[in-house]
């Protein structure tokens, strides 16, 4: 490829394979301003610069720190930044960030993860038991319903309300950025859904995370907007990352049958395989927005207060300075840790849960379907058109000979 021009950074061809464009940027413009609807953003692509940005004390996560142009563009999740959904830990700096993170951290302890592993196995087996034909879509049939079920269990969403949540969440997960009205309607519906759910937990408490947060709100540890925003964050981010991890990971194994065979022969390799899936084609394209609170220099570029910044985790995880032969799918790598779940104080609080669900789902699929193979041309698969997430709409497979 010529170094004269960068491949497109938007559109279906980029969504399908962003890595040639990221390679060009790392070599030619590792920290660069990129146009977005309504504003420009800095895009960081090298591993060393990504670590610097993710851990920089002068980069704020608070949307109020963003430039007027960025705020007017309505970017971020949710798009309209309403306080009832946006005042969660991803959008907070100290002291609010550690306070909000601490309130939910008990739900993600190693002991709790092992209990959720058993539940994930139960749900996975039930979902796969339904696949009695020769073909399936492993996104619709497994990768989507499994994490939705687990996060609804964790938060205490009643069974009869889950289909409503699924319907609205699927719009936010996968809609085109241009479908603003559709996303706004789904966001309105989820706002009401969460307000009603909080009231339900006030009157009928249960043994779940949302009940615990409601109890803490009575003690003044979390206010009402923070409560509904935290529930929104956990419900959306708590499942979409895992949907993408399971789908992208299964596709990587289907495209590398030798690695799939080695994993079937030695299931103890599964944690290393999941870790390499996260590096090789992780579920998060760009870390969520950051904004300088004072002039900051990263990768030789000065960023001014309010400038929106995206850190490309996909690009950093294919940086040859950190990962030899970065385009190879090579479980068991020795060297730098990947950045799929971020770095620093905003490291993904649900990372352990996502890994547990991926290990259960992918390990069980490989064990139960030894003849599994892709039932579509990889080049024809459709990817989410998201600035933040990287995931598949569907993954058609042939389960049996």
Polypeptide structure, described:
By secondary structure, this protein is mainly alpha-helical. It has one domain (about 10-400): Cytochrome P450 (Cytochrome p450, Orthogonal Bundle). It is built from 17 helices and 10 strands. The strands form 4 sheets. It has a 3-stranded mixed sheet with strand order 1-2-8. A 3-stranded antiparallel sheet has the order 4-10-9. It has a two-stranded antiparallel sheet with strand order 3-5. The two termini are about 40 Å apart. The mean pLDDT is about 95.
Topology readout:
Blueprint: H1 12-16, H2 19-28, E1 31-36, E2 39-44, H3 47-55, E3 59-60, H4 68-73, H5 83-86, H6 96-105, H7 110-129, E4 135-137, H8 139-143, H9 145-155, H10 162-174, H11 180-203, H12 209-218, H13 224-254, H14 257-265, H15 270-281, E5 291-292, E6 296-298, E7 301-303, E8 309-311, H16 313-316, H17 351-368, E9 373-374, E10 396-398
Parallel strand pairs: 2-8
Antiparallel strand pairs: 1-2, 3-5, 4-10, 6-7, 9-10
Helix pairs in contact: 7-9, 7-17, 9-13, 10-11, 11-13, 13-15, 13-17, 15-17
Q: Can you describe this structure in just a few lines?
A:
The protein has helices spanning 12-16, 19-28, 47-55, 68-73, 83-86, 96-105, 110-129, 139-143, 145-155, 162-174, 180-203, 209-218, 224-254, 257-265, 270-281, 313-316, 351-368; strands spanning 31-36, 39-44, 59-60, 135-137, 291-292, 296-298, 301-303, 309-311, 373-374, 396-398.
């Amino acid at each position: 490829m010529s170094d004269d021009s960068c491949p497109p950074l938007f559109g279906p061809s980029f969504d399908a394979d962003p890595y040639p464009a990221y390679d060009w940027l790392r070599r030619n413009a590792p920290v660069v301003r990129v146009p977005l609807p309504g504003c420009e953003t800095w895009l960081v692509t090298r591993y060393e610069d990504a670590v610097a940005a993710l851990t920089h004390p002068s980069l704020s996560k608070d949307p109020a720190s963003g430039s007027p142009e960025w705020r007017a563009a309505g970017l971020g999740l949710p798009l309209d930044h309403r306080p009832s959904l946006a005042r969660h830990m991803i959008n907070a700096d100290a002291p609010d960030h550690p306070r909000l993170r601490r309130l939910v951290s008990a739900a993600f302890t190693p002991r709790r993860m092992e209990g959720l592993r058993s539940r994930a196995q139960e749900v996975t087996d039930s979902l796969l038991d339904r696949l009695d034909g020769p073909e399936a879509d492993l996104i619709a049939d497994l990768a989507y319903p499994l994490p939705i079920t687990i996060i609804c269990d964790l938060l205490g969403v009643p069974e009869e309300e889950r289909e409503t949540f699924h319907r609205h969440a699927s719009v936010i997960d996968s809609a085109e950025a241009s479908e603003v009205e559709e996303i706004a309607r789904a966001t309105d519906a989820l706002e009401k859904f969460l307000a009603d759910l909080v009231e339900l937990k006030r009157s009928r408490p249960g043994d779940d995370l949302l009940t615990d947060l409601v109890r803490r709100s009575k003690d003044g540890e979390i206010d009402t907007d923070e409560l509904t925003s935290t529930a929104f964050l956990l419900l959306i981010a708590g499942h979409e990352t895992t949907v993408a991890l399971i789908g992208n990971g299964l596709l990587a194994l289907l495209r590398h049958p030798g690695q799939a065979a080695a994993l079937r022969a030695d299931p103890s390799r599964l944690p290393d395989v999941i870790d390499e899936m996260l590096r090789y084609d992780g579920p998060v394209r760009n870390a969520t927005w950051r904004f300088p609170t004072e002039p900051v220099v990263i990768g030789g570029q000065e960023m001014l207060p309010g400038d929106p910044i995206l850190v490309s985790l996909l690009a950093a995880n294919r940086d040859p300075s950190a990962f030899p032969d970065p385009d190879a799918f090579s479980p068991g790598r020795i060297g730098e840790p990947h950045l799929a779940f971020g770095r620093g104080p905003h490291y993904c609080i649900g990372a352990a849960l996502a890994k547990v669900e991926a290990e259960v789902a992918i390990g069980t699929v490989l064990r139960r379907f030894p003849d599994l193979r892709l039932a579509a041309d990889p080049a024809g698969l459709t990817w989410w058109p998201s600035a933040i997430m990287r995931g598949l709409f569907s993954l058609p497979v042939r389960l049996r000979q």
